[in-house]
Amino acid sequence: MKNYWSIRWKKNDIMSKKKITGKVTYQNLEMGFWGIIDEDGNHWRPVEMPEQLKHDGRRVSVTIKEVDEEASMFMWGTPVKILSFETLTP
Question: What is the residue range of 44's domain?
Fold first, then answer.
C-alpha cells in the first residue's frame, strides 16, 4: 500500500504543473502585488515573484504549480509557485 500512495502522489504532482505564456502586471490593490495574465485571460498570482520578472508589461513564459493558501488578503488570481521562467521579446 505504501508504494501505491507514493506513485499516486508523484502523478498528481506532475499533473498540477503547467506552462503558460503571458504578461506581467502590477496590481495596485491592497498593498500592491505582481501577477501574470496569460494569453487566455487567466489571472495568476505568484506567491514569490522572481525579481527578474518584476517589470510591468514584460512577456514571459513560466512553468507554474498551483498552491494552497490558508489565508490571503489578495482577491485576485490563482496563487501559484513559479518553477521556471524565461522572458520573451515583445
Answer: 17-87
Q: Domain of 79: which CATH number?
A: 2.40.50.500
What does the block give as the cell for 49? 515573484
H/E segment holding residue 13: helix 2-15
Domains held by the chain: number: 1
DSSP element (H, E) containing 23 = strand 17-27
Per-residue pLDDT of 26-79, as tens digits, reads 999 878 999 999 999 999 999 999 999 999 999 999 999 999 876 666 788 999
